[in-house]
Amino acid sequence: MTTTETPAAPVRARAPRGPGRAGPGLHPSIPGLASALVWGAGQLINRQAGKAAFFFAFFAGTVVWEIASGNYYAGMEFTPRLNGGFFVRGLWGLFTLGTQPREMTMTGLTEGDNSIVLMANGLIALLTLALLAIICIWSIRDAARYRTALNSGGRAETSVDYFKRLWESAFAFIALAPGLILLVFMSVLPVLFGILVAFTDYSRDNLPPKNLVSWVGFENFATIFAVPSWASTFVDILGWTIVWAVIATVTTYAAGLLIAVILASKRVRFPRLWRSVFLLPWAVPAIVSALVFRSMFNGQFGPVSQWLVDMRITDERVYWFTDPTSPNLARAIALLVNLWLGFPFFMALVGGVLANIPENYYDAARIDGAGPLQQFRYITMPIVQRTVTPLIILSFVHNFNNFGVIYFLTEGGPDNVDYRFAGSTDLLVTWLFKLTLDNRLYNIGAVMSLVIFVIVGAISVVNLNRTKAIREL
Hints:
Blueprint: H1 29-37, H2 41-45, H3 49-69, H4 80-83, H5 86-96, E1 104-105, E2 108-109, H6 115-151, H7 159-169, H8 171-197, H9 219-226, H10 228-264, H11 271-283, H12 286-296, H13 303-310, H14 327-355, H15 359-367, H16 372-400, H17 403-409, H18 428-438, H19 442-465, H20 468-471
Antiparallel strand pairs: 1-2
């Protein structure tokens, strides 16, 4: 007897309900929106408690920080100035710069708003919120992406596995994060503060806390570029600054190159001794050297002027830095002093490059009949130029903002009656110093610093992008 057996129905294996199986088919926007409202809520929906706690800690810390630093339970009508915490009052102060100046009463000065302090606190609050916003976006995207992966059949992942994977894949970013945060508050914050001051009326005629600083838009820029006296001063000083930077860079590089090539010659004896001697100007602090040269070229007591009179080269003492009829004399002395201070850097730099040029290059050139000048032109210069060009650009930027040599040598003199708060040898950076520290024109000084930043930044970016050594990095 034959019996017919009915095949058993296949048993479907149940998918394991791992830590991420919460509501299969849930739209990714739901956990994403939840994390947008409360950081970590989306991760909690996805059943990742560890990640949820991580993101929620930042959210809770932000809320607690705001409430604890504010006055939300004062029982009065809420105002950002009186009741706001760190973030609310900081943003309010940044946008308004205060609403109540200090006033003299019978009992003394009242407690008012300091616009500059409010601006600084507002920038700190804004940058802190920007960093927290990165964490918020991270929480939203993580919740939505993880839910999308689950809906596509992806494998569930525990919070511990996620953080292990994050540590392995993003270790470099994690290690750099503290430095980045420090960079934001130590470098970006002062730059932003200086930019914002350029759009205010913060000056000696309007100093807080007695007076409130106000936003004035582009009024300060119009003063610099439209008012004839300011515009002519700016154009003349900018022109001299560019001339100074070009000549100072070219002369120091040419002198350093020449001396390095001479010392690399086999005919020079005791080259190490000569290098040590020529490095001395670089070893001495530039401020000390500038003050020494200032004393030497003092028109009234300096030995140089006295020697010229004693040798009957001049009939009277030469006032190198104070004669308003000969501003180019002070400029020439400043360039010579800068040459003395700057050529050892390029001498040492070029000397190191020359020491690494293979000797067989020159042997092959001599076999082909190339003389010393041809070897220098077709072998030495291309190799040196390829290595040194980025540093030449950086040297130009340094000379463009070479505060020390000009200020400690000439103090910007001689005086120029046609300039506003500047002398004939002043660079933009020394003029900026005089505007802010000596004359307390902080708004105009901020405009100048912004102009300097744009000019130097543009020149540096353009030239570095055209350099092969940079393009090949």
